[in-house]
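C-alpha cells for chain A. Residues wanted.
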C-alpha cells in the first residue's frame, strides 16, 4: 500500500505542477476585452495525437481549411513546409519534423501571413499548434482580424505598419514561452470568448516573432492553425 500511495502522491504532485504551469501561461497572454486565451503544453511527453487537457485537438476540417493563404512579410524556411501545412489537417508525427511544419527562415526575426476565409464569417475560436524539442516549440505572435470594409483597409500590412491603423482589429498577443530553461514541447493555444463570437472577419493576420535571439533558430515550428467559424 505504501508503494501505491507514493505513486499516487507523485502523480498528484505532477498534475498540480502542470496545472499551475498552465495557469501561469494563461496569465501571461494579452487579449482584447472579452477575449479568453488558454494555453496548454505537453512536456516532456507528447504524441502525434496533439491531445491537450483543455485546448481542443486540431481539426481536419474547419474554416481555415479552404482559406487562401498569403505570406505578407518575411521568408519561409526552405527546410520546412509551405503555409499550406497550417490548414491541411495533417500533423507532424515527431517532435522535430521540419517538413511537416511551417516556420520562417533561420536567422530572421519572423514575419507575417494572412488567411482569407472567402467571406465575412463569425469567428468563434482560433486555435494554433506547434511542436519542437527546443526553443522552436513556443508560440509568439499577434493575431488581428478584419472584414475588409474599413476605408483605409490595407490587406497586407508589412512590418513596421500598425495593423490597427489600416483597418485591422487586434484580437490577442500570444507568448507561450515558459519561465523555465526547457522551452521545448507541444503547445496548443485556444482563443475564444464567453459569448461565442471573437468577431466578424473575412481576414486574419498573424504577425509572428522569434522565441529567442541567442542563435539563428528561434522561429517557431507551427504545425496547424484552426479557425472555427460560421457564415454570418
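Reply:
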Amino acid at each position: 500500500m505504501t508503494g501505491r500511495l507514493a505513486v499516487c502522491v507523485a502523480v498528484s504532485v505532477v498534475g498540480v505542477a502542470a496545472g499551475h504551469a498552465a495557469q501561469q501561461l494563461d496569465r501571461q497572454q494579452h487579449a482584447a476585452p472579452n477575449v479568453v486565451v488558454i494555453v496548454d503544453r505537453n512536456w516532456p511527453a507528447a504524441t502525434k495525437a496533439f491531445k491537450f487537457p483543455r485546448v481542443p485537438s486540431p481539426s481536419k476540417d474547419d474554416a481555415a481549411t479552404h482559406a487562401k493563404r498569403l505570406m505578407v512579410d518575411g521568408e519561409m524556411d526552405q527546410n520546412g513546409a509551405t503555409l499550406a501545412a497550417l490548414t491541411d489537417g495533417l500533423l507532424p508525427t515527431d517532435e522535430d519534423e521540419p517538413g511537416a511544419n511551417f516556420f520562417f527562415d533561420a536567422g530572421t526575426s519572423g514575419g507575417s501571413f494572412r488567411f482569407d476565409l472567402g467571406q465575412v464569417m463569425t469567428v468563434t475560436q482560433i486555435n494554433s499548434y506547434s511542436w519542437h524539442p527546443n526553443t522552436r516549440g513556443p508560440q509568439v505572435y499577434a493575431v488581428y482580424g478584419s472584414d475588409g470594409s474599413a476605408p483605409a483597409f490595407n490587406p497586407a500590412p508589412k512590418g513596421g505598419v500598425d495593423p490597427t491603423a489600416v483597418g485591422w482589429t487586434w484580437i490577442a498577443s500570444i507568448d507561450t514561452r515558459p519561465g523555465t530553461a526547457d522551452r521545448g514541447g507541444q503547445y496548443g493555444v485556444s482563443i475564444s470568448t464567453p459569448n461565442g463570437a471573437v468577431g466578424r472577419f473575412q481576414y486574419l493576420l498573424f504577425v509572428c516573432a522569434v522565441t529567442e535571439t541567442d542563435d539563428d533558430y528561434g522561429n517557431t515550428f507551427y504545425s496547424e492553425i484552426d479557425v472555427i467559424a460560421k457564415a454570418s
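The chain has one domain: 2-231. The CA atoms of residues 23 and 197 lie 23 Å apart.
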